[in-house]
Amino acid sequence: MRCFDCETQRNLSNDAVATCAVCGAGICTVHAVEGYAEEELRYGLGNPSRLRLPGRRLYCRTCAPAYLATAGHRDAGADALAG
Ligand SMILES: [Zn+2]
Ligand SMILES: [Zn+2]
Asked: How far apart are the CA of 76 and the centre of ligand 1, in A?
């Protein structure tokens, strides 16, 4: 499989080393972003808490921001929301 982002954005043909956990696109080492999946837990009223699921997830550059906002860079995301 080839890297989807390389093919469509840079007209390159790089071999994919991983598959995006969200959209399933092939991604090369440049375009792969490491992160984690989280599950939202709701205990009655109030803000939901989040449970980090075991294992690593790899995302493409397109899908990563939505996940990294709550996973790898939780502090920055929480501050932005709290402000
Ligand atoms: Zn690529
Ligand atoms: Zn993706």
From this structure: 27
- The pLDDT profile of the chain, 83 residues, written as one tens digit per residue, is 999 999 999 898 999 999 999 999 999 999 999 988 888 888 888 887 888 889 899 999 999 988 776 554 444 444 444 44
- How does DSSP classify residue 79? H
Question: What ligand is nearest to the CA atom of residue 29?
Answer: 1
Ligand nearest to the CA of 1: 1
Q: Look up the pTM and report it.
A: 0.69
Closest listed ligand to the CA of 17: 1
Q: Cα–Cα distance between 75 and 2 in angstroms, integer?
A: 34
